[in-house]
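Readers of this paper often ask what the protein records in our data store actually look like. Below, we set out a record of this kind in full and without editing:
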Amino acid sequence: MSGIIRAFLCDDDEWLTTESAFIGFQVLARSRGVAYPGALSRLHYDLLALAAAITEKTKIVYLANPNNRGTIFSKELR
């Protein structure tokens, strides 16, 4: 993931994930000047909220499945 962040994100770009995602990705993105919209759920992925947050500036949507918090999701939205 760090190689993807370095290759595809810079300046005004955005990426989406949850606040509970691996902190190293957040640190790396911020070091590239990339916005991290932190309004998403901290404990689990809200797939509908992630989809609604996508803008023209969004370059990456990072989904860890299962997440370190024990969250798992499937093709069906619940």
Q: What stands out?
A: DSSP finds three helices and two strands in the chain. The mean pLDDT is 76. Helices lie at 2-8, 23-31, 47-53.
